[in-house]
Specification:
6 helices; disordered C terminus; 2 domains; 8 strands; alpha/beta; three-stranded mixed sheet
Length: 208
């Protein structure tokens, strides 16, 4: 681990504790934008290419996510950040990659004028030697521009698997504008991918 990563992580947590009363007040009053700039500066001091988000926690009330988006050059910085940080408690939990949501089928994404329910996402998955090629379809794709379709191709996968498992197991990801045959929903897809260590040759559906 680079020594500057450890030093940057220690400085981050010192700054976090200083800022925490303001963060807690802003979140408690439903105004997280009040601390966004200060948090941006703090995360950039750890490494300028890192991303962060404040989210609802899975077991705690709030979650702080600091992610290098699975860039191997940034992993030493997120590893150092996590190692130097406090343990999770009832108020805060800390994640060094975007975690999966408990049930992606309950998520609705607001994208411009569109409200897109992830419950309607269908995927076709082909497993090859422990990695997965996947095609993603949603009925709303026909109404979206190219950038929005791309967003809605990858977002459901990260929400379902979490950023780290998605980076580890997904190989080719395609957008299926027309509904393909042999699809599964996101919860079935998560079960498939999580089970790859036990069944590396399993395949579901066909991309075509």
């Amino acid at each position: 681990m680079p020594s500057d990563a450890a030093a940057a992580a220690a400085a981050f947590w010192e700054g976090w504790y200083d800022l925490l009363p303001e963060v807690s007040a802003a979140l408690g009053e439903g105004e997280p934008h009040r601390v966004e700039h200060d948090l941006c500066v703090l995360v950039e001091s750890l490494h300028p290419r890192l991303h962060f988000s404040l989210e609802r926690g899975r077991t705690a009330i709030y979650a702080l996510v600091v992610s290098g988006q699975e860039d191997p050059e940034l992993r030493p910085y997120t590893d150092a950040w996590k190692a130097a940080g406090p343990p999770d408690d009832a108020i805060w939990e800390y994640h060094d990659s975007v975690p999966p949501v408990p049930d992606p089928t309950e998520v609705t994404v607001n994208l411009g004028e569109h409200r897109i329910s992830l419950a309607d996402v269908r995927v076709v998955a082909q497993v090859d030697d422990g990695v997965v090629d996947v095609a993603v379809h949603h009925p709303a794709f026909a109404d979206l521009d190219e950038d929005s379709r791309t967003t809605m191709t990858f977002l459901p996968l990260d929400a379902t698997l979490g950023e780290r498992l998605a980076a580890e197991r997904l190989r080719r990801v395609e957008t299926a504008e027309a509904a393909p045959e042999g699809t599964i929903d996101l919860l079935e897809f998560r079960e498939l991918v999580r089970g790859l260590t036990e069944q590396p040759d399993e395949s579901v559906g066909a991309s075509g």
